[in-house]
């Protein structure tokens, strides 16, 4: 029989062995940050090109100190904290924002069936209605390592600016679906793409909001073809979202420094600061960025004309653009069909409760 000392020695030896074995397999390594754009490029040929990117786990990893990370440009830090993995699944999250949660008696009765439609169509998804106070705390938590993002979010002088900014921030960090509280789900997100579509090649799904094929379009809309940002599905870390987050952060801090980040003093409209114009520009900058895409003759030139009159899903690289019917059925213009159409996925009621009274009938 072993003595107590021998048993203690043997136990210590076994424990030391397991610790050494564990450390030999799990030595932590911190990914490096490249100051240029993401290294993965897309070889684009017409509508259904693929992003030629490897899974993140296969890329070389170098150690970087936290002090080095803190000194990197904004976009590089965003990339570091939330890297993009194209081949992962779309996270099963549904994000919405409102003044109250559905558990509150102050939650509008007209909104209850709309909010419930998202849970009904997506059983098994985590569905969160985030209040204003919760949104602030959530952004502080998710972007603790990027203080200027928090500063920009908290400094927003209007609820609509925070609501816009929040959707990009939460999708960039967590992914999933964002949809305005005054929307109803007509079909599950699993039906937004054809059954035979390889979802491992898609990282972002957006839809056409406006396609005004008329000479005076600029009097009515911010862009010749305007993309919708009241409903977006994304995988975390997508470069389009990174661009939108960085642009809004930089513009907010610029205006704050000039002491004009105030209601009635900003040098940008809501549309051009956080709204559909910013979202549309970020998507098209991505399409035309040679760091991601290459055409047969060199640099691409993707414009509104590549999507005007769209009637079905169209894929460029890892982005799928849906026709106007998908997120705007029943609007009665620009080719949008009714909500019983097979391509109708989300219905927007255009409540616009956060807007001034004179703006509630506007698109955004």
Structure overview:
With 364 residues, the chain is of the alpha/beta class. Strands 4-3-5-8-7-11-10 form a seven-stranded mixed β-sheet. It has a three-stranded mixed β-sheet with strand order 2-1-9, with no helix packed on it.
What is the N-to-C order of secondary-structure elements (H for helix, E for strand)? HEEHHEHEHHHEEEEHHHEEEHE
Average pLDDT taken over every residue: 82
Oligomer: single chain
In spatial order, strands of the major sheet run: 4-3-5-8-7-11-10
Low-pLDDT runs of 5+ residues are 1-61, 352-364
Number of strands: 12
Q: Number of helical segments?
A: 11
- Please give the largest β-sheet: 7 strands, mixed
Distance between the termini: 81 Å
Helix proportion range: 25-40%
> How much beta, percentage-wise?
5-15%
Instruction: Determine the structural class based on helices, strands and strand pairing.
Output: alpha/beta
Shape: globular
From the alpha carbons, calculate the radius of gyration and give it in angstroms. 23 Å
List keywords for this structure.
364 residues; alpha/beta; 12 strands; 14% strand; disordered N terminus; disordered C terminus
């Amino acid at each position: 029989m072993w003595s107590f000392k021998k048993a203690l020695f043997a136990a210590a030896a076994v424990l030391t062995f397991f610790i050494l074995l564990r450390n030999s397999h799990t030595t932590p390594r911190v990914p490096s940050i490249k100051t240029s754009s993401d290294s993965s490029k897309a070889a684009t040929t017409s509508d259904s090109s693929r992003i030629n990117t490897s899974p993140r786990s296969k890329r070389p990893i170098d150690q970087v100190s936290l002090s080095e990370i803190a000194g990197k440009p904004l976009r590089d830090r965003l990339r570091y904290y939330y890297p993009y993995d194209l081949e992962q699944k779309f996270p099963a999250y549904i994000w919405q924002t409102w003044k109250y949660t559905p558990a509150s008696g102050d939650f509008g009765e007209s909104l209850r069936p709309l909010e419930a439609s998202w849970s009904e169509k997506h059983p098994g998804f985590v569905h969160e209605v985030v209040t204003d106070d919760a949104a602030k705390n959530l952004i502080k938590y998710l972007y603790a390592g990027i203080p200027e993002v928090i500063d920009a979010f908290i400094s927003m002088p209007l609820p609509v600016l925070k609501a816009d900014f929040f959707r990009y921030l939460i999708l960039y960090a967590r992914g999933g679906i964002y949809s305005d509280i005054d929307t109803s789900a007509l079909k599950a997100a699993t039906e937004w793409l054809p059954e035979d579509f390889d979802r491992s090649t898609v990282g972002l799904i957006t839809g056409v909001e406006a396609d005004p094929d008329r000479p005076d379009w600029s009097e009515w809309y911010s862009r010749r073809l305007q993309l919708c940002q009241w409903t977006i599905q994304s995988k975390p870390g997508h470069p389009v979202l990174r661009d939108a987050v960085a642009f809004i952060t930089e513009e907010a801090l610029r205006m704050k420094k000039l002491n004009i980040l105030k209601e009635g003093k900003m040098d940008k409209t809501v549309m051009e600061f956080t709204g559909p114009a910013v979202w549309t520009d970020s998507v098209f900058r991505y399409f035309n960025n040679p760091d991601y895409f290459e055409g047969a003759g060199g640099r691409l030139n993707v414009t509104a004309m590549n999507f005007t009159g769209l009637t079905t899903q169209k894929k460029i690289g890892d982005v799928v653009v849906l026709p106007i019917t998908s997120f705007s059925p029943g609007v009665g213009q620009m080719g949008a069909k009714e909500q019983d159409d097979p391509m109708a996925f989300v219905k927007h009621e255009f409540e616009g409760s956060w807007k001034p009274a004179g703006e509630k009938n506007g698109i955004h």
